[in-house]
Amino acid sequence: MSAFVTAGGGFLTAVLWMDLMFDVQCRGHGSELPEPVLASIAAYYARVTTAARPMNRLIAAVMAGTLAALIVEVVEGFGQAWVPWLSLALAACAILPAALLTVPSAVRLGARGDSPARQSELARSILTQHACSLACMLALVALQLAFS
Fold it and tell me: Of 22, 24, 83, 102, which one has the greatest count of Cβ atoms within 10 A?
């Protein structure tokens, strides 16, 4: 199971890195982002959340598969008892907010139906959520590699 969890975590880390390459455009601006920055970030999220169907479903499948593999690790007692539990907590802290907050915000930003101020808020919240998720995924992968 550890190999599957590590592979899933690595894949999700790579996805987060790609997202963050667009998200970081939020930095260094006032409260409302300039139109070229909003356009760039929104176009990216329109493409990866909506226009990429059905390929965008792969990310959700990897999230679910990684959580399922971690649950198997917990049930089967992989390695030291605390490792699967901490791994599951790290994955949940990255995946659940992504599913419940980040993806809906990215879809909304990609649609560009809100005011520039609201789009700026969405873009900044996505940046923060992705940075937190990246930290959790990196810790998960490191933990799995260290104790496998």
Answer: 102
pLDDT, one tens digit for every residue, the chain (148 residues): 789 999 999 999 999 999 999 999 999 998 899 999 999 999 999 999 999 888 889 999 999 999 999 999 999 887 788 999 999 999 999 999 999 999 999 999 999 999 999 999 999 999 999 999 999 999 999 999 998 7
Domain range enclosing 115: 2-146
Number of domains in the chain: 1
50 CB-near residues (< 8 Å, 6+ apart): 56, 107, 110, 111
Q: Pull the structure tokens for residue 2.
A: 């550890």
Which residue reads 């409260």 in tokens? 31
| Class of residue 81 by CB neighbours under 10 A (exposed 0-12, middle 13-18, buried 19+) | exposed
